[in-house]
Amino acid sequence: MKTVLVTGASGFIGKNLCATLEQREDVQILRYDLGNTKEELADYLIRADFVFHLAGINRPRHVEEFDLGNRGFTEEILAYLEENGKKTPVAMTSSIHAVLDNPYGISKKAAEDTVFKWSRRTGIPAYVYRLPGVFGKWCRPNYNSVVATFCHNIAQGLPIQINNPATEITLVYIDDVVSELVAAMDGIVHSGNDGYCYVPRTFKVTLQQLADTIYSFAKSRNNLVMPNFESVFERYLYATYISYLPEDGFGYKLEMKHDNRGWLAEFIKSRQFGQIFISRTKPGIMRGNHWHQTKVEKFLVIEGEALIRFRKINSDKIIDYRVSGNLLRVIDIPPGYTHSITNIGDTDLITLFWADEIFNPEKADTYFLEV
After folding, report:
1. How many C-beta atoms surround the C-beta of residue 196 within 10 A?
2. Which of 102, 104, 35 is nearest to 70 (CA)?
3. What's the order of all strands across the beta sheet hosting 27-32?
4. d(CA 328, CA 61)
5. Rounded CA gap, 227 and 233, in Å?
6. Torsion sign (Cα): 74, 79, 80, 86
7. Along the chain (371 residues), what's the average pLDDT of each consecutive run of 10 residues?
8. Which helix (H) or strand (E) holds 299?
9. With left for phi above 0 and alpha for psi between -120 and 50, is residue 195 left, alpha or beta?
10. Which regions of 136-255 does DSSP assign to beta strands (E)?
């Protein structure tokens, strides 16, 4: 069992790190944050086998708090370890703002230097991660993360402000940061010639691109078009956006197109994947009787009984498939075959459909022909 101390455990990175460490049976977590006492910190430092030093100050009421909360608190931790003969490795998160000549940047650089000097003097491993903008769930909006602010405001229907749309920012995803921190604890570290550790995967995006992408997520509830999840960044950003939805806004309605046959509703659309839709069909009712030049589909009956019929458009041979929600069976719909699905049961038929492209009424690739 390894005992690890996490300072700043209630912060953005701290919460995510602790949530990951909790899944490990070989780790005991000691959480330290503003609500803890100095006596508790001293006790935790004595007990810890590894220290994740994530705590810091970036929005103080007084400028002097930058140095006290960043360099000063770091010195306090390292001095206590050294005074008590503890050979505890330390991983510390810093910021790319440490290169800036302002009170925050100067204090972060001083904290980094304190860790490097301590490590050289004692020979104890220290890992300093100078991170770009970190994004992901649980980051406080309208604080110091543009991603969190954009996601929160757009999800809440609030305006955002962009001073220079062309400004390019570098981002790193919270799960990648946590994975690197945990790997450091396990002795696996990515480090550069400058002595800093780093997260291998980062993303570059302009503020306008970031805003446009997040706005597209909000619109997807109406147009049903999902992001391109082949892009890892879009997948991570979408997960982040969803985490900022208001708790009374997790659900949204689909348009149900009713007629004498029952109803049909589109569910999800993707320019890479096609679209998924669902229908309810009354007993004895037939849908379809059309064919496609290129478009392909899959039918899956999930409730009720159905007869799916095929006929190649230049043939008289009819092919029948009986399917039931009691035994799930996917039926592929090839191009060049006119096809239909009929509810042959006594109850309503529920069918899930997939098509390899989003329906375009101007180029429907759908031609009426009875089976």
Report:
1. 17
2. 104
3. 27-32, 2-7, 50-53, 90-95, 126-131
4. 62
5. 10
6. positive
7. 96 97 97 95 97 88 84 95 96 94 92 96 96 97 94 97 96 98 96 94 98 98 95 97 97 96 97 96 97 98 98 97 98 98 98 96 95 97
8. strand 297-303
9. left
10. 168-173, 203-206
Tell me how far apart the alpha carbons of residues 295 and 291 are, in angstroms, rounded to a whole number: 9
Strand 168-173 and strand 203-206: the pairing is antiparallel
DSSP string spanning 127-141? EEEEE-EEESTTPPT
Structural domains of the chain, with CATH: 2-131 (3.40.50.720), 256-368 (2.60.120.10)
**Residue 177 is inside which H or E element, if any?**
helix 174-185
Q: Pairing relation of β-strands 50-53 and 203-206?
A: unpaired
Catalytic annotation present for 321: no
DSSP 8-state class, residue 102: S
CA atoms within 13 A on the CB side of 346: 0
The C-alpha atoms of residue 37 and residue 43 are separated, in whole angstroms, by: 10
**In what order do the strands lie in the sheet containing 337-343?**
318-324, 305-312, 337-343, 286-291, 367-368
pTM of the shown model: 0.91
DSSP 8-class letter at 69: I
Residues 6+ apart with CB under 8 A from 307: 320, 321, 322, 323, 341, 342, 344
The single residue of 32, 44, 104, 129 carrying the catalytic annotation is 104
